[in-house]
Design brief:
With 83 residues, the chain is mainly alpha-helical. The protein has 3 helices and 2 strands, in the order αββαα. A two-stranded antiparallel sheet has the order 1-2.
């Protein structure tokens, strides 16, 4: 189930011209960021490209090593068993 946006949240998004809006849960004091799906996709793509660029630069500088898939899978299984 997708929760429905409130009128207050909609107004805040409109006032901020589609930019992300910080909101706070009055009970938990936890802060959340409201952002439209298309903007969120763009932000995620931008972040991912930046992270990949870091990896490419490290690889070009000789700072990488071969991926040990067996170690990665063992770690995933260990975390799954703990969870």
């Amino acid at each position: 189930m997708t929760p429905k946006i409130t009128d207050e949240q909609r107004e805040a998004l409109q006032q901020n011209l589609g930019r992300p809006v910080a909101v706070e849960d009055a009970r938990t004091r936890e802060r959340y960021i409201l952002v439209g799906e298309s903007a969120a996709n763009g932000l995620l793509e931008e972040w991912l490209r930046g992270e990949l660029q870091i990896g490419f630069e490290q690889s070009d500088a000789g700072l990488s090593r071969p991926w040990d898939i067996q170690r990665t899978l063992a770690e995933a299984h260990r975390r799954g068993a703990e969870g």
